[in-house]
Amino acid sequence: MPGEQTISFKDMCARFDVTPRTLRYYEYIELLSPRKEGRARFYGPREIARMTLILRGRRFGFSLEEIRQWLLIYEQKGSREQYQVWLDLADRQLTVLDNQIADLNAARADLQALRETAAQELSKMG
């Protein structure tokens, strides 16, 4: 599009702190579709926004396939459907994260108790 601001492949990697391999892989699995000029790739506002969503989704624990499917919904069915699917995904992932937090808290409590037992044993040894 005329006047559209784009950034280079190298700048995209730097901006999002990802490796070239990661960026090429996201393109390969059709998460990103940069404009190509020969071997050069240029990323516009759409791709930058998608990359932000991809990385945020990964941080929340979503698979790349879940993210890809969610992004496709906007193109195929629009915002309303995308928001509904997002709510369902978010509810499911919140449950997963809550379970992980509970597991980590239990592991931490076990480790703390074991550490205290070891410290007591060590203090008995003089």
Protein architecture, described:
The protein is mainly α and 126 residues long. It has five helices and three strands. The chain has a three-stranded antiparallel sheet. The radius of gyration is 22 Å and the shape is elongated.
Keywords:
126 residues; mainly alpha; 3-stranded antiparallel beta sheet; 5 helices; elongated
Helices and strands in order:
Layout: E1 7-8, H1 9-16, H2 20-28, E2 35-37, E3 40-43, H3 45-59, H4 64-77, H5 79-124
Antiparallel strand pairs: 1-3, 2-3
Helix pairs in contact: 3-4, 4-5
Note poorly predicted spans: none
Please work out how many helical segments DSSP would assign: 5
Strand count = 3
Strand content: 5-15%
- The SSE order reads EHHEEHHH
Largest sheet: 3 strands, antiparallel
What does the radius of gyration come to?
22 Å
Provide mean pLDDT, rounded.
94
CA-CA gap between termini: 76 Å
Helix content: over 70%
Which term fits the overall shape?
Answer: elongated
Question: Strand arrangement, largest sheet?
Answer: 1-3-2
Helical/strand content category: mainly alpha
Short description:
By secondary structure, this protein is mostly helical. 73% of the residues lie in helices and 7% in strands.
